[in-house]
Design goal:
Helix content: 55-70%
Order of helices and strands: HHHHEEEHHEHHH
Structural class: mainly alpha
Strand content: under 5%
Number of domains: 1
Number of strands: 4
Distance between the termini: 23 Å
Shape: globular
Radius of gyration: 19 Å
Largest sheet: 2 strands, antiparallel
Length: 310
C-alpha cells in the first residue's frame, strides 16, 4: 500500500534532530574554545552523555519508522536478532580476536555485558537501518512476484553486500574518534591511521564491520521484507526519513573529527565515503523530481517509490 502522506511525523522528527545537531555542531566549531578539555576529560563525561542521548533518539526514530512501515512484530524480530548479532560479534572480538581483530573496551562507554558496552550494540542499529533503506533506493534492481527463489536469494545477497558497504562507511570516522577518546584499544594495531592512532587500526576491523553488517542486512531482508510486500510505504518512510537519518549520522561524526579530534583528513575520508552515498541519493531524487529518471523510480523492493514531477 502506498500512502504518500504516511511517515511525515517521524520524518519531521528526524529532520528537526538533524537541524538541531547541525546548528549545535557548527556553533561549537566556530565559537567554543574548550573542546580540547572536553575531549581529554576523564569519562564517562559530557561527550558520552551526548552520545547516549543521540543514539536513543535515533533508535526512537528507527522504531517509529519501522513500526509504521513493517508493523510491530517484524520490527521487534529484526531489532532483537540484529542486536544479538552485533553483541555476539563484538564479544567474540573482545574475547578471542574474531570478526574485527584483537581489541578491548574501557569503561568509558558505560554498562557492559560480556565486556561489550550496551551503547555500542545500540549504536549499530541506526546506521544499519538507514543503510538498509538507502541501499533499496539506490540499487537499480527489482524484485517481482514471478522471480524464482534463486533469483530472490541472489538479489538479497547483492543488496546485503552493498548495504554492508554503506554501513561500514560510517566506521571510517567513528573508530578513530572513539579510539583517540579512549573508548576502546586496538591491541595489535594496523595500517589505517598509523601515526594518528597509536599503532593504527587493523583492516580486519572494517572487513569485520562489513561481515556483521552483511549478516544484519540479510536478517532485515528475511524479516522486514517478509511476505509479498511491506504493509505500508511512502517516500517519507522509505526514502526521505532514512536518508535524513544517514545524513544525521554523517554530520555527527564529520564534525567530531573537526571539533574534537582536529583531523580534517579523517573528516574528508568520511565525506568521500558516506558523502558519496548521500550524493547519489540526492541526485536520484533530483532526477526523479525532474522526470529524467522516472523509469528508475521503482528500484529494488520499491515498486511504488515515485516522486511527483513538477
Amino acid at each position: 500500500m502506498d500512502d504518500s502522506k504516511r511517515g511525515r511525523a517521524p520524518f519531521y522528527f528526524v529532520t528537526i534532530l538533524t537541524i538541531i545537531a547541525l546548528i549545535s555542531q557548527i556553533f561549537t566549531y566556530l565559537f567554543r574554545t574548550d573542546t580540547d578539555t572536553l575531549y581529554k576529560m576523564a569519562g564517562p563525561g559530557p561527550l558520552e552523555t551526548g552520545t547516549w542521548i543521540f543514539v536513543t533518539l535515533m533508535l526512537l526514530y528507527c522504531l517509529w519508522n519501522s513500526i509504521l512501515t513493517k508493523g510491530v512484530w517484524l520490527t521487534v524480530a529484526a531489532g532483537v536478532v540484529t542486536l544479538f548479532i552485533c553483541w555476539l560479534a563484538e564479544g567474540l572480538g573482545v574475547h578471542y580476536g574474531y570478526v574485527f581483530g584483537h581489541y578491548h573496551y574501557t569503561q568509558l562507554l558505560g554498562f557492559q555485558i560480556w565486556a561489550v558496552p550496551i551503547l555500542v550494540c545500540f549504536a549499530w542499529e541506526p546506521i544499519l537501518y538507514s543503510a538498509y533503506y538507502l541501499t533499496d533506493f539506490l540499487l537499480p534492481l527489482q524484485l517481482k512476484e514471478s522471480h524464482s527463489i534463486i533469483h530472490r536469494i541472489l538479489l538479497y545477497l547483492i543488496a546485503a553486500a552493498i548495504g554492508g558497504m554503506v554501513t561500514t562507511a560510517w566506521d571510517l570516522m567513528v573508530d578513530p574518534y572513539f579510539v583517540l577518546r579512549g573508548g576502546w584499544v586496538w591491541e595489535e594495531g594496523g595500517p589505517y591511521m598509523q601515526g594518528i592512532i597509536a599503532n593504527g587500526v587493523p583492516i580486519s576491523n572494517y572487513f569485520g564491520w562489513w561481515k556483521v553488517a552483511f549478516a544484519c542486512h540479510i536478517v532485515f531482508r528475511l524479516t522486514l521484507d517478509f511476505g509479498d510486500r511491506p504493509p505500508r510505504r511512502s517516500l517519507y518512510l522509505t526514502v526521505y526519513g532514512p536518508m535524513m537519518l544517514y545524513f544525521n549520522l554523517f554530520i555527527g561524526t564529520f564534525f567530531n573529527m573537526l571539533i574534537y579530534v582536529k583531523r580534517p583528513e579523517i573528516a574528508m575520508i568520511g565525506l568521500l565515503s558516506m558523502g558519496a552515498f548521500l550524493f547519489m541519493g540526492v541526485a536520484k531524487i533530483y532526477l526523479l523530481k525532474t522526470g529524467t529518471g522516472h523509469s528508475a523510480a521503482e528500484g529494488f523492493l520499491m515498486p511504488n517509490a515515485q516522486l511527483p514531477v513538477k
